[in-house]
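Hey, I'm writing a tutorial for new members on how sequence and structure tokens pair up, and I'd like a real worked example in the thread rather than a made-up one. If someone can provide the structure for the chain below, I'll link this post from the tutorial.
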Amino acid sequence: MTHIIILFFATFSAAFMATVPPGLLNMNAAKTSVEKGKLNGIVFSLGVSSMIMVQAYVAVLISKFLYRNPEVIDLLLKIALVVFAFFAVFFFVTAKRNKTQKIKQVNVSKKNSFYKGVLLAALNLLTIPYYSGLNAMWNEAGWIKFEAKDITTFVVAAGAGTFSVLYLYTFYFDKLETKTNRFSKNSNYILSALMLVLLVITLIRIFYR
């Protein structure tokens, strides 16, 4: 039971941190809230989180397939290594650019808020490799065992972590808007450092295998 709790909070934290920097999804959650009301913003956020859960599940299936083939376990860790290296550079470069994020125009009506959230989340192709990398790390750490309860915990935590950030953007973006530039820069540096730590851990695991 202990590993389930660790798995949930580790995945929740990873999902939360990945969603914090202002981007297409959270900025549209804020835009929807401002233009269509907070309830509509929540519906949009639920759509995004639902798709994130689907993508997290696909990521688990990919990791599960690789892990059950002993000859590609090392490949799984190398994939995680590449993923974390990419995100470390990606977030660092994003922070260096230090550009104010603008809300992109996406017309959202009350009727299709949920589906718009699903669609925009589906367009984010980085989600699956991100969660595949995390899944590889959690598996090596012994936090996930590819059992039904573990997979469910991982998927739910990914969705919950994402929704938590979108919820904050929906209700409190007006208070953060004037600080968006500094907020974006700092959060991206933090994410870059986090990816670097995961990269080092993965390198250590590959070396000692």
